[in-house]
């Protein structure tokens, strides 16, 4: 594997851990696609640094379990804004 890919994978993982970030947050921060972040974290990182991969996996699993809640909050805010009611 190329060095820059390994560096990117560890940088993304560190960012996600330090900021409790989502895949979308990391992708936006480092100007790469969500697919790239996911592939780096899920497929490449375990070959590079297993303990780091396990720590990131825990955060990604937590984000996944909370995803439906965040979606509901976003929808609520959207409709409140449409009828001009402050949140």
Name the structural class. mainly alpha
How many domain units?
1
Question: Low-confidence segments, ≥5 residues, pLDDT <50?
Answer: none
* Major sheet: none
Strand content: under 5%
Give the helix proportion (percent range).
over 70%
Distance between the termini: 48 Å
pLDDT averaged over residues: 90
- How does the overall form come out from the CA principal axes? elongated
SS summary, helix count: 4
Order of helices and strands: HHHH
Strands, total number? 0
Radius of gyration: 16 Å
Topology (SSEs and partners):
Layout: H1 3-19, H2 23-30, H3 34-48, H4 50-82
Helix pairs in contact: 1-3, 1-4, 2-3, 3-4
What distinguishing features does this structure have?
87 residues, 4 helices, mainly alpha, elongated
Structure description:
With 87 residues, this protein is mainly α. It has helices at residues 3-19, 23-30, 34-48, 50-82. It has one domain (3-82). The longest helix is centred in the last third of the chain and has 33 residues, at 50-82. It starts with a helix and ends in a 5-residue tail after the last helix.
Give a short overview.
With 87 residues, the protein is an all-alpha fold.
